[in-house]
From TrEMBL:
It comes from Amycolatopsis cynarae. Residues 121-510 form the Solute-binding protein family domain. Keywords: Signal. The keyword Secreted does not apply. This is ABC transporter family substrate-binding protein. PANTHER family: MONOACYL PHOSPHATIDYLINOSITOL TETRAMANNOSIDE-BINDING PROTEIN LPQW-RELATED, PERIPLASMIC BINDING COMPONENT OF ABC TRANSPORTER. The lineage of its organism: Bacteria, Bacillati, Actinomycetota, Actinomycetes, Pseudonocardiales.
Length: 606
């Protein structure tokens, strides 16, 4: 599933793993300056992207053995945890994931190289056991338990399907991609879960990840449902409502009795006012028992404060997804005190979404003129060049620049200058007013860009305001701290939205962002800009059923090109990553799951 990348501040003391390459110095594992790689990291950072017991050739991951130590390790992130269930529209952010990645076990693990691996701590296999009909069978290891002692088994997978299927309206799922294609899901026994699809789905390894597998036994206890596997989309509506209401509404914040762990750590405390979550070892974790016994995850609304906290030893890991030049310089300057700095590619891109319900932006010429007026290279150079010397605007909404199939579709559409934008508007009947702003049918070309409380985004909008003004377009800045975390973005109550999407390495996860929304089927659940283009819908529909990569890429390219021709969303740039740590042997900021993806392997250093 695609996730929102919010951010609280810009002058961050660290940033996550992401797209291209950052510039600058770093420190070796002993804290001395020992040279840099192409990302400006310490020389040893690349090796930290692989788990200690990972078997890349077999495609499996297990937590590796490491000494157990008390800690606590305090990890700084740039926005607060808010929910145990990260799968609803109002909770679907990366910052919840950064906590629950070590709390909830799932079918897969993504290493620092974004390699998709079977979570061999809890699963024996995930195999396509039939191609007609397309069937995937999951074999669950016996003896896996939740932290409250209940078995972690097929019931949890079944609830994961039921909640994400889109077939039960009471489950308010942020996305149904993949799950909606499963016609039949059944538990053959406690350790065997079988899913039968209506069509081939080669991205099945992206399903049933840790965020999807919530405790079925808790839902049963709290709703009085004896066995969730007996509940189907055609069951008694009253039963479905009970299950859906609990799943949607009761797994927010933290309630110990409702929120056990199936991963190596469990949440033991949550201070909402301080934005702090305390994690301690799950006594029933089936895998390796090492790593720090306690981890505290703190949010920092001010990036300078995070940098200072790392410098003063108040935190041991600074892990942010928001690159900042000042922060990068600060982090690199801490090498003498043993701080290791890292930067790496990240699967996150910043973009501007056009709202098709806006009276102005619903017209193609207006969107086209806006794109033409925006100089993305100027924005990237002024805000990110210190972090990544060769930063470039992004040319795709579906492909990263190093992906097979990537094409620059926006270089010929955006940044063409004020004169071209004016020509486009005037050809569509707009006239320049005495105030320097174009108007048509009594309406001025005035739009607002909305975003969360993030100084870099404020700076982005200020640059856009200047560029658009030269083209006779008025842009206003709407800095709303709750725009992402409060769910306003999902309501469509905005003209232009500025935020970032974070995605796992599965192209099918772009589908719910851009296909025509349909509440009845759950299609387009994350299409908050009200875009509807049959060419986009058809291309995605063909891509997700493709059984070979070449065919899938062809159709994803068709969807990408149609979106570009719609001038629907303007990709700005992939966000280069930064992170820093001290007192620990190795930390790697995984671009989708954050720094805690292998926290059970962290060993004490120094």
């Amino acid at each position: 599933m695609r996730r929102l990348k919010a951010a609280s501040a810009v002058t961050m003391a660290a940033v996550a793993a992401l797209a291209l390459s950052a510039c600058g110095g770093g420190s070796g594992s002993n804290g001395t300056n020992s040279g840099t790689d192409q990302n400006g990291s310490s020389n040893d950072v690349k090796s930290m992207a692989v788990g200690k017991a990972e078997n890349a050739s077999a495609g499996t991951f297990k937590l590796g053995d490491a000494p157990a130590w008390d800690g606590p390790v305090t990890v700084g992130i740039d926005d607060a945890y808010s929910a145990y269930n990260n799968q609803t529209p109002d909770t679907n952010t990366s910052y919840n994931y950064y906590v629950i990645t070590s709390v909830l076990a799932g079918s897969d693990v993504l290493d620092g190289n974004n390699k998709v691996l079977l979570n061999n701590d809890v699963l024996d296999s995930w195999d396509v056991t039939s191609t007609s009909p397309y069937t995937v069978t999951y074999k669950i290891k016996p003896g896996v338990k939740w932290s409250d002692g209940a078995p972690w088994n097929c019931k949890d997978f079944y609830l994961g399907w039921l909640s994400g299927s889109g077939k039960v309206k009471d489950f308010n799922a942020a996305s149904t991609t993949g799950y909606s294609l499963i016609n039949d899901a059944k538990c053959v026994d406690d350790q065997t879960f079988v899913t039968t699809y209506s069509q081939p789905y080669v991205d099945y390894k992206g399903l049933f990840d840790s965020a999807q597998l919530l405790p079925a036994h808790i839902l049963e206890q709290q709703t009085g449902i004896p066995d969730i596997t007996k509940v189907t989309p055609t069951s008694d509506p009253a039963v479905l409502k009970k299950a859906g209401d609990f799943w949607t509404n009761q797994w927010k914040g933290f309630k110990k009795e409702l929120m056990p762990a199936s991963g190596p750590y469990m949440i033991t405390a949550f201070d909402q006012n301080q934005g702090a979550v305390t994690l301690e070892k799950n006594p029933n974790w089936i895998g390796a028992k090492g790593g720090p016994k306690k981890i505290v995850v703190r949010s920092f609304s001010d990036t300078k404060a995070m940098a200072t906290a790392l410098q003063n030893g108040e935190i041991q890991v600074a892990a942010s997804t928001q690159p900042d030049a000042t922060a990068a310089t600060t982090l690199k300057g801490l090498a003498a005190q043993g701080v290791i700095y890292g930067s790496a590619p990240q699967l996150t891109y910043e973009h501007l979404d056009m709202n098709y319900k806006n009276d102005i932006l619903k017209d193609l010429p207006a969107r086209k003129a806006f794109f033409q007026a925006i100089n993305r290279q100027e924005i990237a150079d002024k805000l990110l060049k210190e972090v990544q010397s060769d930063v470039k605007p992004m040319g795709s909404l579906i492909f990263q620049s190093n992906d097979n199939g990537y094409q620059d579709l926006y270089g010929s559409k955006a940044g063409l200058g004020a004169a071209e934008a004016k020509k486009t508007l005037e050809a569509d009947g707009w006239t320049l007013g005495s105030d320097g702003i174009y108007q048509k049918n009594g309406k001025r070309f005035s739009v607002t860009i909305s975003h969360n409380n993030n100084p870099r985004r404020d700076q982005t909008v200020e640059l856009v305001i200047s560029q658009a003004k030269a083209a006779g377009i008025e842009v206003k800045n709407d800095n709303d701290p709750t725009f992402l975390s409060g769910g306003r973005v999902s309501t469509g109550n905005w003209d232009i939205a500025l935020f970032a999407w974070s995605q796992a390495p599965f192209k099918s996860q772009s589908q719910p962002l851009y296909e025509t929304a349909n509440k009845a089927t759950g299609a387009g659940n994350q299409n908050w800009q009200n875009l509807s283009d049959p060419k986009v819908d058809q291309a995605f529909a063909q891509a997700v059923v493709a059984t070979d990569e070449a065919t899938a890429i062809k159709h994803y390219q068709e969807a990408d090109a149609a979106l570009a021709d719609d001038y629907a969303s303007l990709p700005l740039f992939s966000l280069p990553s930064m992170w820093a740590f001290q007192g620990i042997d190795k930390v790697y900021m995984q671009s989708y799951n954050g720094a805690l993806w292998n926290a059970g392997e962290w060993a004490k250093r120094g």
